Amino acid sequence: MERFEYEITKHSADTFDKIIYFCSESGQCGIDEVAKDQTRILADILNNRGSKGWALVQISFGKDGVMAFWKRRIKDKKK
Predict the structure, then answer these.
(1) Assigned domain for 27 exists
(2) How many Cβ atoms sit within 10 Å of the Cβ of residue 38?
(3) Over the stretch 15-67, which tens digit does the pLDDT of each residue have?
(4) 16 within some domain
(5) How many whole angstroms separate alpha carbon 42 and alpha carbon 67?
(6) What is d(CA 1, CA 78) in angstroms, rounded to the nearest whole number?
(7) Structural domain of residue 55, as residue ranges?
């Protein structure tokens, strides 16, 4: 049986200061404009975690920053 562990990381809005993120009165939220260096910052976060075996499950953008949900397979210890 495969087993997984999960982790949640938070990344401050200061890290992504050039992303224009907005929410309508109905609660629909979206990204209006993303500068090229901001996508590089996000790619660096993804690649850094990926190199440690973590796979991104979901990412959530909010007014205070980004929250990322990760999982990775737990290796069974050989007896």
Answers:
(1) yes
(2) 17
(3) 766 555 566 778 776 665 556 677 788 889 899 999 999 999 998 877 777 88
(4) yes
(5) 11
(6) 14
(7) 4-73
